[in-house]
Amino acid sequence: MQTQVLPYLRELKKDGHEIALLTFEPDLSSAWTSEQLTEMQEAMQSEGLAWHYLAYHKRFSALATAYDIFRGAWKVRELIKAKQLDILHGRVHVPTLMGALARKFSRRKPKLLFDIRGFFPEEYTEAGIWPTNGIVYRTVKRIEQWLMKESDGFVVLTEAAREILFPESTAAGFDKEGRPIEVIPCCVDLDKRFSGLGQVTRDKIRRRLRVENRFVITHVGALGGLYLSEEIADLIATARQNDPAVFALLLTQSDPDKMVALLHERGFSPDDYFVGRVQSSEVPQYLSASDLGLSFVKASYATLSRSPTKIPEYLAAGLPIISNSGVGDVDKLIATSRVGALVDSFDNHRYLNALQQVAELGDSSDFCRTIARQEFDLELVGGARYRRLYARLMEYDSE
Q1: Given 3-state DSSP classes, what are the helix, strand and coil percentages for the chain, each rounded to the nearest 5?
Q2: Which residue from 386, 373, 382 is spatially nearest to 15, judged by alpha carbons?
Q3: What does each C-alpha distance from 254 to 259, 276, 346 come to in angstroms?
Q4: Tens digit of pLDDT for each residue in 58-82?
Q5: 92: how many CB neighbours lie within 10 A of its CB?
């Protein structure tokens, strides 16, 4: 919400849009006091954002989701009537379904924007959560097909996803029915979140980690599942064979125990790594203290739709990247912009080759920041494309 929702809404406010936001909050009664909820609503209202919330339920997963969809659709229907909404913007499948159902039972018919953040059904089957081609998967795919017909506009994260979902879309950004489409990767606020990062900040964090004279390789984000923990550990271990001063910095909300065990198996001591959580506001500072960013994600049909947030964050902090191929538009970014290296298979030879390619780039920090602004800047890329999409959506006539 703080890095990938609210910043975009603030950008949309620049065109004078009045925005109401509905979220589902886990552990609502225990995580928030009534005073905190009121304070947050007032703070968001001061920015012109009307925040509405409902409790998120997860026990008895399928039933809980159905219940939340019903409650969400009813709430959206109330908001359509009360606020005379023009656009329903659904971020991923379930919220878009709420909007589509609410519109079906409303006199007013706002435009429906399907913000497709990934190939949701395929992600769940590939992660082993749903059986491949099982009843849940088939049901969700039917709902997805209905939403594709019902929607008046679309957002996808990657050009690869656009080519799969809208093979007949025009270069101007419309599908064959004239509905607007925008490719909007995960962006970062370079002027706020990544401002003020310099040598002083870098030195401070490196002293905190006790890595003043070490080469720091970083991974940010979840570990396990689609995120390839063993391969990450292998590459860092390969780098350490050539340079015993290599330090592993893994900033993650995941349980650190498995990654710590993997590093110990590869000869790392507690002085050679940090695995754990830091405050979101501190992530840019830790990245500025690093020398190389890693992004290893299982390559599959589903991950062609992904835009890993860590990629623009690494670049914004001036870090070159080593990534595996086959994920979203990362291959094209690295191949055309030369901000790092790709590995097409996971073995020691490929790791050494990728590390050598990064070394040959020399000090590329300024160039990496330039590419971050060109490809992932919140205002110039994300905000501009969302504002253009809203304008085209209001002009679209579905009749």
Answers
A1: 50, 15, 35
A2: 386
A3: 9, 8, 23
A4: 876 788 989 999 999 999 999 999 9
A5: 13
Q: Is the pLDDT of residue 210 over 90?
A: yes
Q: How far apart (Å, rounded) are the C-alpha atoms in residues 317 and 314?
A: 5
In one letter, which amino acid is 12?
A: L
Q: Can you tell me the distance from the alpha carbon of 211 to that of 288, in angstroms, rounded to the nearest whole number?
A: 13
What order of strands is seen across the sheet that includes strand 340-343?
Answer: 273-276, 247-251, 216-220, 292-295, 321-324, 340-343
Cα–Cα–Cα angle for 362, 367, 368, rounded to 5 degrees: 95
Q: What is the pLDDT of the chain when averaged over all its residues?
A: 94
Beginning with the edge strand found earlier in the chain, give each strand of the sheet holding 181-183 in spatial order: 87-91, 111-116, 153-156, 181-183
Strands (E), 199-262: 216-220, 247-251
Cα–Cα distance between 23 and 53 in angstroms, integer? 5
Reported as a single tens digit per residue, the pLDDT across 370-385 is 999 999 999 999 999 9
pTM: 0.91
Beta-sheet pairing, 153-156 with 247-251? unpaired
Q: In residues, how long is the chain?
A: 399
20 by Cβ neighbours in 10 Å (0-12 / 13-18 / 19+) ranks as middle
